[in-house]
Specification:
Elements lengths: L3 H13 L2 H18 L2 E3 L2 E3 L2 H6 L5 H5 L23 H14 L4 H19 L11 H14 L4 E6 L25 E8 L2 H4 L5 H27 L4 E5 L9 H6 L4 E2 L5 E2 L7 E8 L13 H7 L2 H5 L10 E3 L2 E3 L4 H10 L5 H5 L8 H23 L6
Antiparallel strand pairs: 1-2, 3-4, 4-8, 5-8, 6-7, 9-10
Helix pairs in contact: 1-6, 6-9, 7-9
Bound molecules: iron/sulfur cluster (SF4) (2 copies).
The site of one iron/sulfur cluster has 13 residues, from helix 13 and helix 14.
Length: 388
C-alpha cells in the first residue's frame, strides 16, 4: 500500500527530474559556485566560504582518537543525525548541494528511502519460525548464496567485535548472550563499483555510482537478513552511506574481503577499492572466514600513489596510533573540506592501482609468483640435509 509520504516523495521526484527544474538547479549551482566551491592554489587548497562559515571549529582527528593509545569505541562523525555530530551543518550542506547537483537520481533516492524503511523494520523483526534443521555449514553457504543472488559480489563472515560498535550505540539484545557478552556474527558484503564511473573521481559520476552501489549493497544485506529471519534467526541488514551502528571496514578485513590500504579504504583482491560495503548482523552460529593476505599489505608499504594523488596531503606513508591500534589513517581535518567541496572526492581510492581493472591482474600475478617463490624456498629449507 502506498503511504502519503511515498506519494509526496514520488511527486517531488517527478518535479525534480523535470527538465525545467534541472535547468533551474544548474543555474543555481552556477550562481552559488563562488560560495560553495573551494580553490586549489599554489600554496594549497582554500576551502569554500560556506564551508568556513559552517565549520564548528572542532577537530575530527581528535574525535576519531588520533594519537590515543588506549582502545575505545569510535564515534559516528559523519552520515548520522545532524545533531549527533559537530559536523552536522556541513553534512547537511553536502546533502543539499549534492541534491542540487543531482548526484542521486530522484528515483534512486526514492529507492534508498524505501530501503532505509525496510532496514528499520528488519532491526526489530523477530525470527519468523523456530530455527530450521540446517547445519552450520549449510546455513553459512545458503546465506552467502542469498546475499550474492540479491546483488552482493563478495561475501565473508566474521565474529562481531565490541571495538567496531559506535559509542552511544547499542546493538539489539539478541546480539548478547545471557551473561551480557557480545555473541553475534556479521555477514559482510562487498559490491563492485563500475570503474568507468568511479575512475573519474572526484567528478560527479563517481559519486552517483557510489550511491547507486550502496543501494545494491543494502538490497543484498536485507535479502540475507530476511533469509535468516525465515530460517529462525535474527538478521539485520545494513549498508552505507549512513553510518549505522558499527564500522564496516575492519569487519570486512576480518571477514576476509581484503586489507586496509594506505588510503583508509578496503583493498579487495577482486575489485581493489572500487567497491562499497554492507553487512548483516545475526545471532545465527555461522562458519567464520579468516583474514587474507594477497600481497596488498606488502605492496602498500612502498607504494605512494594515493599519498601523492591526494590534493590536500591528508594521507600519510606511515601507520599511526588511532584508538589504541596502529593503522593507516586519513587525516579527517585535511580531507573533509576537499571531500565536501568535491562530490565526496574518492581520488585516493580510484587512483589505487588495485582499483584499476587493467592493472590489478598484473599486480596479483606478480604477488602470486613472489609467494610461490617464497614457498618453494621455504620447502627447500625444510628438507633434511643428506649426510653421506
Ligand atoms: S578522499 Fe580525497 S581528500 Fe580525502 S584523502 Fe582521499 S584523495 Fe585526499
Ligand atoms: S595507492 Fe598504493 S599505497 Fe595507496 S592504498 Fe593503493 S596500493 Fe596502497
Amino acid at each position: 500500500m502506498l503511504h502519503l509520504k511515498d506519494l509526496l516523495l514520488s511527486w517531488r521526484n517527478q518535479v525534480m527530474e523535470s527538465p525545467t527544474f534541472v535547468r533551474f538547479t544548474k543555474r543555481m549551482i552556477a550562481v552559488s559556485s563562488p560560495l560553495i566551491e573551494g580553490k586549489q592554489t599554489d600554496s594549497g587548497y582554500i576551502t569554500s566560504p560556506i564551508y568556513r562559515a559552517l565549520h564548528p571549529g572542532a577537530s575530527g582527528n581528535k574525535i576519531n582518537g588520533l594519537g590515543e593509545d588506549k582502545k575505545r569505541r569510535p564515534f559516528r562523525i559523519l552520515w548520522t543525525a545532524d545533531d549527533e555530530t559537530p559536523f552536522g551543518k556541513l553534512q547537511r550542506l553536502f546533502l543539499i548541494t549534492s541534491g542540487m547537483k543531482g548526484t542521486v537520481k530522484f528515483t534512486d533516492h526514492l529507492h534508498t528511502h524505501g530501503l532505509a524503511q525496510r532496514e528499520k523494520k528488519q532491526y526489530t523483526q523477530p525470527p519468523l519460525s523456530p530455527p530450521k534443521m540446517l547445519t552450520k555449514t549449510e546455513l553459512s553457504s545458503a546465506v552467502k548464496k542469498v546475499a550474492k543472488e540479491a546483488g552482493g559480489d563478495i561475501v565473508g563472515i566474521t565474529e562481531m567485535k565490541e571495538d567496531w560498535i559506535f559509542d552511544n550505540t547499542e546493538l539489539p539484545s539478541w546480539a548478547y548472550d545471557t551473561k551480557g557478552n557480545l555473541d553475534a556474527r556479521l555477514i559482510v558484503i562487498g559490491v563492485e563499483m563500475d570503474y568507468e564511473h568511479f575512475g573519474v573521481a572526484p567528478e560527479l559520476p563517481a559519486a552517483t555510482e557510489a550511491m547507486k552501489q550502496y543501494n545494491r549493497g543494502t538490497e543484498s544485506a536485507l535479502s540475507a537478513g530476511d533469509f535468516l529471519l525465515q530460517n529462525g534467526y535474527h538478521g539485520w541488514g545494513h549498508a552505507g552511506p549512513r553510518a549505522g551502528r558499527f564500522l564496516l571496514i575492519p569487519a570486512a578485513a576480518q571477514a576476509g574481503l581484503g586489507n586496509l590500504g594506505k588510503h583508509g579504504s578496503l583493498i579487495s583482491k577482486e575489485y581493489g577499492s572500487s567497491l562499497r560495503l554492507g553487512a548483516v548482523l545475526t545471532n545465527a552460529d555461522l562458519v567464520l572466514d579468516g583474514k587474507i593476505d594477497f600481497g596488498s599489505e606488502d605492496f602498500c608499504v612502498n607504494c605512494q600513489i594515493c599519498v601523492r594523488e591526494c590534493p590536500v596531503d591528508a594521507l600519510s606513508s606511515e601507520k599511526q596510533m588511532v584508538r589504541g591500534v596502529e593503522k593507516y589513517y586519513v587525516n579527517f581535518d585535511k580531507c573533509l573540506p576537499y571531500f565536501l567541496d568535491n562530490n565526496g572526492c574518492g581520488i585516493c581510492a580510484s587512483k589505487c592501482p588495485y582499483s584499476r581493472p587493467e592493472v590489478r591482474p598484473k599486480l596479483l600475478n606478480k604477488h602470486e609468483k613472489k609467494l610461490n617463490k617464497l614457498q618453494n624456498k621455504n620447502a627447500k629449507a625444510a628438507q633434511p640435509i643428506k649426510l653421506d
